[in-house]
Specification:
Length: 70
């Protein structure tokens, strides 16, 4: 396993733990902190937010679901 792969996996673990922590905080706080769904709905109310969400979704799809030539 190369160093960059280890760093990448560690980064994804940190991101996953952060998302789980934010979700638990939103659930436990009884709406003091917004959940991810509430934030996404607020962001996509406007056209610019929809375009950013579409670009993010496209980027994620391209990087995770398109096979490389390696």
């Amino acid at each position: 396993m190369s160093f960059s792969r280890s760093v990448t996996i560690a980064g994804w673990i940190v991101i996953g733990i952060s998302i789980a922590t934010a979700t638990i905080a939103a659930f436990v706080s009884r709406a003091r902190f917004p959940s991810a769904v509430v934030v996404l709905r607020a962001a996509t109310r406007h056209v610019v937010g929809r375009m950013i969400a579409l670009a993010a979704w496209t980027w994620i799809g391209w990087h995770f679901f398109v096979r490389t030539s390696r």
